[in-house]
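Incident log entry.

Two folding requests arrived from the same account within the same minute. Monitoring flagged them as a possible duplicate submission, but the sequences differ. Recording both here for audit purposes.

Request one:
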Amino acid sequence: MEKHSMEQPSEEQLKVELEKKENDLFLKKTFETWYGENEFKVDKTPIVVDPRDHNFEQIKDNSVKDKFGEYTINPEMQDVDIEHISPEKIKIFPLSEFVGKQLYEVAKHIIDTYGSTHHIPGLEFWKWVLEEYENAPDEVKVKYKEMKDGNQHHFLGSIVRDQEGHARVPNAGWNGLEWDRSARWLGNNWNSNDRIVLFEK
């Protein structure tokens, strides 16, 4: 009788599956925090999209409830070592000239101006800030200490769809006790306490 051996998943496949499970759990907790419910089941395959390929204005107006829980990840960020990046490569932009304009306009400006010279963090960095920053070694935390200034720091490398299907950009701000778990709709106005985080290549 011929024996058939099951093909074993590759190390890369196992890594992708593990990251998906971790992202599902992270987003489940995020939605429970936002909506005060505990019955969310998140099982979405991440959509791999270079943010330079996004039409942010079009995405802003494309809200579909069936897309709840969908999220994108930036392929360029998957090999960036968040904890070992050189501190001089961590860039935070206030973009005060955009106050009163919409977030999608800020996103377009960032892509046009810095898309080729900087990595654009997204969900992977959002998750790290919220879940791992406080337990990181002091030499790692000090690199990101500027982010604990009370401002809202946005991570344009990912889009997350909320309960209404609106496209939101992950962001986090330190409120003095903990990190806010938030994401802003692309149609929201840019405020004086908003910031963009990028990693110089």
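Request two (distinct sequence, not a duplicate):
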Amino acid sequence: MNSRNGYGIQLFHKAEFLTKIENKMKKNIFCLALMVLSVFAGCNSAKVELSGKVTYTDGTPLTVGEVCFETDTYMARGSLKADGTYTVGSFSEKDGLPKGTYRVYISGADKLVAESDGMQLPQSLIDEKYRQSTTSGLMVNVPTIDGKYNIKVEPNPHK
């Protein structure tokens, strides 16, 4: 090729550019693979089964909602059944959660209430403090001695 007309230089720069891009892509793929492996390794190792029951202070079960467990980097939840029981899951319904200390709160514990205009609005069944991990006052160290974490909640005082 005639390098005087610039084609040889363009091809050289193009080949060099493609090599650099290829190397960057290899590095990015390698980093991505490491991240995925570390996430799966961390999430699948040492999971502990945890279940329990949520009741009002009078012993009546809370039958709707989810019990949520969170740390700064992890979250798991268990759906409440008709008898107030739940089993915690991270990626599937009953796969447990890693060992650690968790802040606990309850979400979705609502019923629909008809307003005078016919609209139905959700009304919390529990005291609002249980709806956020920062105000619920609920914490658990996993694993527990018996694999259970029972919770007593106060009803919504405004209903």
